[in-house]
Amino acid sequence: MLHGKTALVTGSTSGIGLGIAKALARQGAHIVLNGFGDADGPRAEVLAAGEQHGVRVAYHGADMGRPAEIEDLLRYAAEQFGRVDILVNNAGIQHVASVQDFPVEKWDAIIAINLTSAFHTTRLALPGMLAAGWGRIINVASVHGLVASAQKSAYVAAKHGIVGLTKVTALETATTGVTCNAICPGWVLTPLVQKQVDAKAAEHGLDNEGAKRLLLGEKEPSMQFTTPEELGELAVFFCSPAGNNVRGVAWNMDGGWAAQ
Q1: Domain annotation covers residue 44
Q2: Residues 98 and 219 in one domain
Q3: d(CA 253, CA 185)
Q4: How far apart, in whole angstroms, are the C-alpha atoms of residue 179 and residue 134?
Q5: Pick the catalytic residue: 59, 81, 155, 257?
Q6: Counting CB atoms within 10 angstroms of each CB, which of 64, 65, 156, 217 has the fewest?
Q7: Reduced to 3 states, what is the DSSP secondary structure of residue 15?
Q8: Other beta carbons less than 10 A from residue 210's beta carbon
């Protein structure tokens, strides 16, 4: 379905980003990976996912909190594959503290990586998409782009901002072949969320499974984690012909969290 297309997925060396990258590769898209840590393992996984389509995989380690590195990332993607057809803004970090205690440098870093980076990638990728007459921008927001939780002021502010940016981008491209939508997951068992599970376990003297149940029970009626694979399939849908007129949505995949 996506033969000849190129997808850039930020924050894609683990978790949700890697799941989306593999799903797009299975549809034949070449992939530009981005993120910290080991790149060889994720690259091998994506190559395996797209093996039958001859998918190529590149990697760039841009720090998504630095605009100059983001510009270099987009230049690199264009050099490798011509242009970015599918942009998935997924990079994100988290810090938990009350507003009055929130470290200013943590606030600045979360807003930069979780929100401002998506503005930079979008402004840089859009001209090529518009010129080609086709493009998909998929912003990985969060259920926290729709509702709030205590202790997460920067994250919730950034994710609400991502939903707003999604809507504006969708309106500005509404008469073109470019669409922009947001995915709003609930709990996904990524390394980021596992840290919160570990914190619950320590706080309440629970084992790993008990801490997971407690975490899910507080927010997610389905009592099950959303998976990176499920989120990847939703991204594929947005890229399919069925998604041609899906514009500006914030699509929650949250086990009923926001329905409460």
Answers
A1: yes
A2: no
A3: 5
A4: 8
A5: 155
A6: 217
A7: helix
A8: 14
Place of tokens 């299975």: 26
pLDDT tens-digit series, residues 135-189? 999 999 999 999 999 999 999 999 999 999 999 999 999 999 999 999 999 999 9
- State how far the Cα of 258 lies from the Cα of 221, in Å rounded to an integer: 10
Tokens of 60: 């760039």
Q: Output DSSP code: residue 3.
A: T
Cβ contacts of residue 98 below 8 Å, gap of 6+? 150, 151
Per the structure block, which two tokens stand in for 140?
Answer: 């990985």
Rounded to whole angstroms, the Cα distance separating 34 from 25 reads 15
Is 76 annotated in the active site? no
| Number of Cβ atoms within 10 Å of the Cβ of 43 | 18
Q: How far, in whole angstroms, is CA 221 from its chain's centroid?
A: 23
Is 224:185 a contact under the CB 8 Å cutoff? Answer: no
User: Are residues 231 and 106 part of one domain?
Assistant: yes
Q: Is residue 124 part of a domain?
A: yes
N-term to C-term CA, the chain:
36
Together in a domain, 83 and 178: yes
The phi and psi torsions of 250 (rounded to 5 degrees) equal: -115, 95
pLDDT at 220 over 90: yes
Question: Residue 193 pLDDT more than 90?
Answer: no
- Structural domains in the chain (count): 2
Residues 10, 36: Cα–Cα separation, whole Å: 10
pLDDT tens, 70-89? 999 999 999 999 999 999 99
Burial 119-144 (b: 16+ CB within 10 A, else e): bbbbebbbebbeeeebbbbbbbbbbb
